[in-house]
From TrEMBL:
It comes from Pacificispira spongiicola. The lineage of its organism: Bacteria, Pseudomonadati, Pseudomonadota, Alphaproteobacteria, Rhodospirillales. Residues 2-49 form the BFD-like [2Fe-2S]-binding domain. This is Bacterioferritin-associated ferredoxin. InterPro entries: BFD-associated_ferredoxin (IPR052371), BFD-like_2Fe2S-bd_dom (IPR007419), BFD-like_2Fe2S-bd_dom_sf (IPR041854). Gene3D superfamilies: BFD-like [2Fe-2S]-binding domain.
Length: 61
């Protein structure tokens, strides 16, 4: 699944960056070799970071 359409970054790549210790969206972007474009994916990346840290999925609003 694509997390970032603008940069064609998939969830696997984001997960690998988080597993490598990148725990802020900007650090994840950098680890993936991209920069944020529209920024809409930042919330999804934050949710993925939260889930990895806590083991709890954030509830949809």
């Amino acid at each position: 699944m694509y997390v970032c359409i603008c940069n064609a970054v998939c969830d696997k790549r984001v997960s690998q960056a988080i597993d490598a210790g990148h725990d802020e969206p900007d650090a994840v972007y950098a680890a993936c070799g991209v920069t944020p474009q529209c920024g809409k994916c930042a919330e999804t990346i934050e949710e993925m970071i939260w889930t990895k840290k806590t083991g709890v999925t954030m509830a949809a609003e």
